[in-house]
Design goal:
Among the domains are: about 225-325, no CATH class; about 360-465, Immunoglobulins (Immunoglobulin-like). The relative contact order is 0.10. By secondary structure, it is an alpha+beta fold. It contains 16 helices and 16 strands. Strands 8, 9, 10, 12 and 14 form a 5-stranded antiparallel sheet that branches.
């Protein structure tokens, strides 16, 4: 309330989101984004249908508690590999961000990719930027209804196919297709197909830049990974200002006399920006590094016969000190990059070595507590052991069990165990030693489980043998 006038003034703390009408753009970076759309979606949609060893190449079978990734079969006990993969992915993101900013956001992020797809469909039905603005302002009509309806029809189709494919990585996709066609999908499968379809439709069709600006945490902590030598989309203020309109006949030489920079203030860089920012105002956390403003600005520079690069990939130091491309590359090798790269090499090397040296056999040996150490046939001491074998290889294996650690120890029964492909097998193994061979008490013994088909597959497990008093 104003004390002088007695008037009450209402201040709104909420600003409604203004719809962004993005103008389409052509250029080398636009072509790269189109390539990344096809590349990423070919992997996502195609990988689920790729056959491998008689099953899906990539399948996270939650019911069977097995993860299939090409030749590898992972079990819940292999969660360490998942941890390594997540750490490697995080450091790879840090490394790329420290070098080239948010290029992942601009070219490979699912939100960016699906927004590109949805915007392409929107333009086919509703026209270019000016036509979309005019259509939205027009009253409802048959023309507006079929254009809006057709757009949403294809959006929903893509959303449903995306949800179906996503679930197909957790339920065998061929079986899932049969269930969908026969309308017999389970409750959880149905839920996730529609949930993921709705999320795709909502995020790429409506929320778009709001996901990048408000929901994505990456936009908030990216500044921690940036420094003044990070390659980002930049506006050359020294060259572009003072900005202003001019005739096309005004060449680059005449600009100085007119006290004008190269920027013609056409605002096309703002119109093509998917997050609606003005790159001329400097680095902003909303910038996803898609380079659409570079393409459109280069087009304008060509039309005006000015040199390209008013908006370009560069660094803050390079702009201030007018570095050449060679100088920019030289400053890329800085301590932060070297540390990120070194850690990444160690992690990738460790993960690769771990996968290559991974033993497809896992063995768990427990002495059977229900059966006491006992004397049998009047001349042997016998202990019973429970064996649980995990054969992660995708072929059947016959394993031979041997024992050592005590004189004359021998396997009485259970010396051979057969495990089916990518499955577990349980067996009871009896070990005997002659009476008076060992003193009463606990004695360490070792079991060796050896594959008959592959001599390189073997596991040795330590346990104890009890001799009663």
């Amino acid at each position: 309330m104003s004390i002088a006038t007695g008037e009450t003034k209402v201040i709104s703390l909420y600003q409604s989101q203004k719809k962004i009408y993005t103008k389409s753009v052509v250029g080398r970076f636009a072509n790269l984004r189109v390539f990344m759309v096809f590349f990423t979606q070919a992997i996502f949609y195609g990988l689920a249908w790729l056959p491998w060893n008689g099953r899906q190449a990539v399948l996270f079978d939650l019911n069977a508690r097995k993860f299939y990734i090409f030749d590898w079969v992972f079990w819940p006990q292999d969660v360490l590999y998942l941890t390594f993969i997540l750490i490697v992915s995080a450091y790879a993101l840090f490394f790329v961000t420290a070098i080239a900013g948010r290029v992942f956001c601009g070219y490979a992020c699912p939100q960016t990719v699906y927004t590109e797809i949805f915007m392409w469909i929107e333009e086919k039905f509703e026209g270019d930027r000016a036509a979309r603005i005019k259509l939205d302002q027009a009253p409802m009509s048959a023309n507006k209804l079929w254009r809006k309806g057709g757009k949403h029809f294809f959006w929903i189709l893509i959303g449903l196919w995306t949800g179906f494919t996503f679930v197909g990585y957790f339920t065998p996709i061929h079986s899932l297709m049969q269930e969908v066609l026969s309308l017999s999908t389970g409750p959880w499968e149905t839920f996730w197909i529609f949930f993921y379809a709705f999320a795709t439709w909502g995020n790429a069709g409506f929320m778009r830049e709001q996901v990048c600006k408000y929901m994505c945490p990456y936009a908030r902590f990216q500044s921690v990974m940036f420094d003044r030598d990070t390659m980002i989309v930049t506006y050359d203020q020294a060259r572009g200002e003072p900005r202003g309109g001019r005739k096309k006949s005004v060449d680059a030489v005449a600009l100085k006399a007119l006290n004008l920079g190269s920027c013609v203030d056409c605002s096309l860089c703002v119109q093509v920006c998917p997050t609606g920012i003005d790159i001329r105002e400097g680095l902003q956390y909303e910038c996803i590094g898609c380079s659409a403003c570079i393409d459109v600005c280069d087009t304008v520079m060509d039309k005006m016969s000015y040199p390209k690069g008013l908006i370009r990939y560069s660094t803050e130091n390079a702009l201030e000190k007018n570095w050449s491309v060679a100088a920019i590359r030289k400053h890329m090798l800085r301590p932060r990059i070297i540390i990120y790269f070194s850690v990444l090499v160690v992690l990738v090397g460790g993960l690769a070595a771990s996968l290559l040296l991974r033993n497809p056999l896992k063995v768990d040996v427990i002495r059977d507590q229900r059966v006491l150490a006992r004397e049998v046939e009047g001349r042997y001491i016998e202990n019973i052991y429970k064996f649980n074998l995990m054969n992660t290889a995708e072929r059947a294996q016959r394993f031979v069990v041997t024992v050592d650690g005590l004189p004359d120890a021998q396997i009485n029964r259970g010396g051979q165990i057969i495990a089916e492909p990518a499955s577990t097998a349980a067996s009871s193994v009896a070990v005997r030693i002659p009476v008076d061979t060992a003193k009463p008490g606990s004695h360490t013994i070792h079991f060796k489980v050896q594959s008959e088909q592959d001599a390189a597959i073997s596991v040795t497990e330590k346990t104890v043998f009890l001799v009663p008093r």
